[in-house]
Amino acid sequence: MDFPEELKYSKEHLWVRVEGDRAVIGITDYAQVELGNVTSVELPEAGDELEQDDSFGSIEARKTVADLYAPLSGTVLEVNTELGTAPEFINDDPYDAGWLVVIEMADSEELNLLMSAELYEDTVSVSEE
Known about the structure:
Layout: E1 8-9, E2 14-19, E3 22-27, H1 29-35, E4 38-42, E5 49-50, E6 55-61, E7 65-69, E8 74-79, H2 89-92, E9 101-105, H3 117-128
């Protein structure tokens, strides 16, 4: 599995790529493997406000439906509308084409509550044992 070093990770298996005061958010490689083939995704709309740790949508796969929990607070700037017709991008390319939303961060200090790639990898390795 792939855990890019430049990303931050949440305990709910989401990744964050910081770009200035913006954050791109998606689900991790580990999460997409655990879910199986993603069949649909429900995401917020541009302009919606997210609160850290609150549900902001859901992802449906053959195995289950899972809530998505915001790793950071902020305003949704962009939503990956491609996922509406091509949810398989999440499985095929979770760190690029499979991104979910871009937000303007409300509080960059919240980044300190997220995990490094190394810590996230350790966390999911323990859960697999």
